[in-house]
Design a protein that fits this description.
- There is one protein chain.
- The chain has 11 helices and 8 strands.
- It folds into 2 domains: 243 residues, Rossmann fold, CATH 3.40.50; 52 residues, Helix Hairpins, CATH 1.10.287.
- The termini are far apart.
- Helices cover 43% and strands 14% of the residues.
- Bound molecules: 1,4-dihydronicotinamide adenine dinucleotide.
- 1,4-dihydronicotinamide adenine dinucleotide binds next to α1 and α4.
């Protein structure tokens, strides 16, 4: 059974509430031993991170234990390298292995780009991008040793497509996709697969951006099956799943076949040929960046530059 997680250990960051809590409960319900990480801060990332309030994480861990599952709480801040190493050590001490990491912790500091304090831009990058980097780095030595691992990055439609007032969040969320794109290449030989999730759910992050009728449909629990799918034994590698209110889809970065215009092409030629070179009917997704370079070189050779 690829989606029975008995004997496996899953770390979920930011699992004291919202989507992370739903993922933690879903993994526990299918037999996983769960590490519930959360530093217990406010939606904008402010709060008592230094004292490492365990209460939201502890509550979720307690709920899992009450259900007959196996969970521990961790109050680490994902922006701290020391905290993420301590989280990995705590997991190894408690459970002896690490199979799954869901990088879910996140904050919002919305404002239009020109009005935003640079400190708010940096903080959002720090939590989403560096948080995913530090948590992944902390667990990877164990996953590599075990020759098995599943990592899920939490991206967003805001990163994939843009969202007014969220330049910091959009940049951070697409940066994590870039991270996943390369990790999936580097880690595949160790049996580790890296994918991304773009969820939509009613949580404290969205409670003031959508009307109550919409929020009622967007239960966080409806997203978690996508995370479990991405962490199964048969998981894909390098995919982006979008999920919300019961709909699941695949997102992909595609490039048109293009048109060889010559090394001395002009902007006028690009404008004249825009319809042809931007035709997406035969668009492709590349396995790695060098596949795109290969296309350029082959086109140039075939056209005898
Ligand atoms: P949430 O605010 O309910 O949950 C985020 C959790 O992360 C909180 O419990 C918070 O304490 C924790 N956290 C924040 N900074 C942390 C840090 N430095 N260290 C440890 N924990 C930290 O929000 P939600 O909606 O559950 O978000 C979960 C993830 O899903 C986030 O990455 C978010 O950006 C992403 N997302 C959510 C969407 C939605 O519709 N709710 C849409 C797209 C992406």
């Amino acid at each position: 059974m690829p989606y029975d997680f008995t004997g496996q250990v899953a770390i979920i960051t930011g699992a004291g509430g919202g989507l992370g809590r739903a993922h933690a409960l879903a993994f526990a319900a299918r037999g996983a031993m769960v590490v519930v990480n959360d530093f217990g801060g406010a939606r904008d990332g402010s709060g008592d991170s230094d004292s490492g309030s365990l209460s939201p994480a502890e509550k979720v861990a307690q709920k899992i234990t009450d259900m007959g599952g196996n969970a521990i709480a961790n109050g680490g801040n994902v922006t701290s390298e020391a905290d993420m190493h301590a989280m990995a050590d705590q997991t190894m001490d408690a459970f002896g292995r690490i199979d799954i990491l869901v990088n879910n912790a996140g904050i919002l500091r919305d404002k239009t780009f020109t009005k935003m304090d640079i400190s708010d831009f940096k903080m959002v990058m720090e939590v989403h991008l560096m948080g995913a980097v530090l948590a992944s780095r902390a667990v990877l030595p164990m996953m590599q040793k075990q020759e098995y691992g599943r990592i899920v990055m939490t991206t967003s439609s805001s990163g994939l497509y843009g969202n007014f007032g969220q330049s910091n969040y959009s940049a951070a969320k697409l940066a994590i996709v870039g991270l996943a794109n390369t990790l999936r290449l580097e880690l595949f030989k160790y049996g580790i697969r890296v994918n991304a999730l773009a969820p939509v759910a009613a949580t404290r992050m969205t409670d003031d951006v959508m009307p109550p009728q919409m929020l009622a449909l967007l239960v966080p629990e409806s997203v978690s099956p996508a995370v479990l799918y991405l962490c199964g034994r048969d998981a894909p590698n390098g995919e982006i799943i979008t999920a919300g209110a019961g709909t699941f889809a695949r997102a992909k970065i595609l490039e048109s076949e293009g048109l060889f215009l010559g090394v001395d092409a002009t902007p006028e030629m690009i404008a004249e040929n825009w319809d042809k070179l931007s035709d997406m009917t035969t668009a492709k997704s590349y396995k790695q960046g060098s596949d795109q370079s290969q296309k350029f070189i082959v086109n140039a050779f075939e056209n005898k530059v």
